[in-house]
Design goal:
By secondary structure, the chain is an alpha/beta fold. The protein has one domain (about 10-205): Vaccinia Virus protein VP39 (Rossmann fold, 3-Layer(aba) Sandwich), CATH 3.40.50. Helix content is about 35%, strand content about 25%. It has helices spanning about 10-15, 20-35, 50-60, 70-75, 110-120, 135-145, 165-170, and strands spanning about 40-45, 60-65, 80-85, 95-100, 120-135, 175-185, 195-205. The chain has a seven-stranded mixed beta sheet, sandwiched between helices. The radius of gyration is 16 Å and the shape is globular.
Length: about 210
C-alpha cells in the first residue's frame, strides 16, 4: 500500500522527527479531537517508531501498531506491532474502536482502498483520526523565495491533498466526517486558514 524500499536515511529521519516536540504536539492535537475513551482499542496504521502509540498509552488507550516495513515492525518502541499492508488489514470487521493515520494517507498508492479497509475494521460509531500535510501549504512554500530549504521531499509519498479533496476521498470511502480543518503553522504571513501546515480530520463509521 505504500511505496517500497526507502533507504536507511529515511528511517533515521522519520525516527528523529517523530521524537520532536512538534510531532508530539501534532499527535496530541489529533488525539484531543478524537476524544477517545480509556481502554479504546486503537489501531495506529503506519506506526513507524511508535511515537503515536506512546501518546495513546499515556492517555489510557490500548494501542495496536501496524506497519508494512519490516524495519518498523522490528524497531518500534511500543508493542504489539503487526507487519501488514493497510489495504489488507489482518483484523475482523468491526474490531477497532478507532484508527489513526498520522502522516500515512499520503503514502497510500490507492487511498480509496486503504480507507475502505479501515472503515471495515472499525466498529459502528468507531472513529478515524487523520493528520496529513496540506497541499495548499506546500504550494505556498514553493512560491516563497528560499523556503524550500525548510522542506525535505519524501520519496515515499504518493499523494498530497487539499482539504476539499481529502474530505471527498474520506466521504467516498463511506465515512461520515465530523470535522476537518487546516491545522498548524502558516506558510506565509497571511490570515488565510487554508495556508496551515497540516490537515486534521476526524470521521466516523455510521452506526447501522
Amino acid at each position: 500500500m505504500m511505496q517500497a524500499r526507502p533507504d536507511a536515511s529515511y528511517f533515521a529521519r522519520v525516527k528523529c522527527w517523530s521524537s520532536t516536540k512538534a510531532y508530539r504536539r501534532e499527535v496530541g492535537s489529533l488525539l484531543a479531537a478524537l476524544d477517545l475513551h480509556p481502554g479504546s482499542r486503537t489501531l495506529d496504521v503506519g506506526c513507524g517508531p511508535g511515537a503515536a502509540m506512546e501518546e495513546l498509552r499515556r492517555r489510557g488507550v490500548a494501542p495496536l501498531g501496524l506497519d508494512i516495513y519490516p524495519a518498523w515492525a522490528d524497531l518500534c518502541r511500543q508493542r504489539p506491532v503487526v507487519r501488514a499492508d493497510a489495504a489488507r488489514l489482518p483484523f475482523t470487521s468491526g474490531s477497532m474502536d478507532a484508527v489513526l493515520l498520522v502522516h500515512v494517507v499520503a503514502h497510500f498508492q490507492q487511498p480509496d482502498a486503504g480507507l475502505r479497509e479501515i472503515l471495515r475494521v472499525l466498529r459502528p460509531g468507531g472513529r478515524l483520526g487523520l493528520l496529513t500535510p496540506n497541499a495548499t501549504y506546500l504550494r505556498a512554500l514553493r512560491w516563497r523565495r528560499g523556503s524550500q530549504r525548510h522542506y525535505v521531499p519524501d520519496p515515499t509519498v504518493n499523494h498530497h491533498f487539499k482539504l476539499r479533496d481529502l474530505r471527498r476521498q474520506v466521504a467516498a470511502a463511506g465515512f461520515q466526517i465530523l470535522h476537518a480543518r487546516p491545522w498548524g503553522r502558516r506558510a506565509l504571513p497571511l490570515p488565510a486558514a487554508s495556508l496551515r501546515e497540516r490537515l486534521l480530520l476526524v470521521a466516523t463509521r455510521v452506526t447501522v
